[in-house]
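Supplementary Methods, section 5.1.

A reviewer requested that the exact input to the structure prediction be made available. We therefore reproduce it here, unchanged from the version used in the analyses.
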Amino acid sequence: MQARLPLPLWIHAFEHVSAALCAKVAAALEQAGLQLDPGGARASGFGLALLDGIDAAVLERVRSLAAGASVLAIAVGARAPATADMWALLEAGAFDVLNWTDANDAAARVRARLERRDALQRLADSPEVRTTLVGASPAWRALVHSVVEVAAFTESPVLITGETGTGKDQVAQLIHRLGGRGELVVLDCTTLTPELAGSELFGHERGAFTGAANARDGAFALADGGMLFLDEVGELPLPLQAQLLRVLQEHTYKRVGSNTWQRSRFRLVCATNRSLEEEVANGRFRADLFHRIAAWRCRTPPLRERSDDVLPLAQHFLALLAGPGAACEFDDAVREYLLLREYPGNVRELRQTVARLWCRHSGPGPITIGDLAPDERPARGAPAIWPDVRFESAIRAAIDLRIGLARISQAAADIAIQLVLEQEGDNNQRAALRLGVTDRALQIRRKAWAEAH
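The structure derived from this sequence is encoded token-by-token as follows.
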């Protein structure tokens, strides 16, 4: 038996999976060194969903299991599931789908998948990552997992795309820290001029041009053994793009004014707020350079696609401003204002908004609406705009997943009930009053929801 993996693992067998087959799977997993939790499915941790056949009920149950846990789907039937069914399992929340054939081979594959997933989860949940990439929305957590994986398990070039103010710079810095390579050299491509670009990138020899009184290292020399971050790479003019190709392909270059080839080994990370595919199609960005820098891609979602993170981010920025040990928070009216406000500048604009509130605030107690500058206050008597872009974004995501209207409505109602009950300390009467339903109707709804889950 292999060394035991200290990773408690639960198994959920669907109704068409026999108890005998489930026992064989469990025995093979134990032999592979996995520690099984006899208590069955849990709301967290790691679990296997053993299934023989896939239908709407199976997908719904997988979605429920995966809501708070990492779920690996295992097909134990005589025939492998159809490709469309495997994609459906991933969309439901399973992180992978494996076929159970030869027991030893399958158990080894399960262990390997869980080891990698556990390592990723530990890094993603580490204080270093959580204090750099703040947020818990599904879109943001998916990005965090992608960043952690490319940083810690690959040496791949990375292209970070996203709107202005979405955190591309923070992602690049985290890739450098998790990768553990030398120095981080940052080059803002918007500052490069045709006259000085060669020197900035490749360095120059003494006397190479007027004013070159001394030899100078460029970005590629400084990044040797470390990481080179080309910020706003989409702004590079075509002639400079051509000059980059050789050094990115062969890691060799010449200083301006020199005939000697220099070598530099570095990791490349680029960022842009442009769509480089469109730039390539329009002839403004070289296709060969694009494919060289985009071996792995990370997209930082705009704030409107991660509205659940608005208040956690605002509180994080407020804590940074207040300093260690200081207690400060927003009152209900300010929280509502922050949630309903639009942020064209994304997270950067949210941070600036919080900073203005903090600067205007004085004394103990929470930040209140009086701390809002007059020109930032909502128009008097203006009703709250709802549904807003964040609600529309959530509905659009559900539609893209081909979720029907009945289920969208059901999910919205269930989430509303859960949230209000949490806010009202599980008091059914107060929650019913806030939701505009009778106490009896809410009790019936809660009972039906509990039986279904």
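The mean pLDDT is 87. These observations are discussed further in the main text.
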